[in-house]
């Protein structure tokens, strides 16, 4: 009988812990997310969608900007998964590399800009909970995580673009020979 009681208490305990976690989010990060989303949408409206589009096209001309600033802007302004639609500003051969860069940024950006990928927020809060438990600021970790993420997306973007061009060239040569 004690076994069944402990099993039932453990079972409901899981849901109680989940409810406590949810309430922590509702009183903690969710208001911040709502304000951030409102700010980003207002900023785009104030700047103007056409200006944002022109700036995006300018960023895609340079390989460094294409796989650093451009994915950052797309993830920051459009959030995951809408950020991948920024690929429309790129040539077909650059789209796989842009996707690789953008998808690799959606986690590292979450510590500084949680609105960018709400789905990754639970991962970030899990990672940073050790620091908050100790009463330490999570910002140094968030900044370092973001910087490393930016370096990684740049490298991945450049390498993926080179691989894509090589595969495209091989595919074109094979099609020509047939």
Summed up:
With 178 residues, this protein is mostly helical. It contains 8 helices and no strands.
Account of the protein in words:
The chain is extended and about 75 Å long. With 178 residues, it is mainly α. The longest helix has 39 residues, at 139-177. The chain has helices at 2-27, 29-47, 49-59, 63-66, 69-78, 95-105, 121-133, 139-177. Helix 5 (69-78) crosses helix 6 and helix 6 runs antiparallel to helix 8 (139-177). The model has no long low-confidence stretch (mean pLDDT 86). It is 75% helix and 0% strand. The N and C termini lie far apart (76 Å).
Order of helices and strands: HHHHHHHH
Oligomer: single chain
Into which percent range does the helicity of residues fall?
A: over 70%
State the end-to-end CA separation: 76 Å
Mean pLDDT: 86
Our estimate of the beta-strand percent is: under 5%
> How many H/I helices?
8
The count of β-strands is 0
CA-based shape: extended
Rounded to an integer in angstroms, the radius of gyration calculated over CA atoms is 21 Å
Structural class: mainly alpha
The biggest beta sheet, please? Answer: none
Transmembrane segments: 22-44, 64-87, 138-159
Keywords: Membrane, Transmembrane, Transmembrane helix
Organism: Vagococcus allomyrinae
Protein name: PTS glucitol/sorbitol transporter subunit IIC
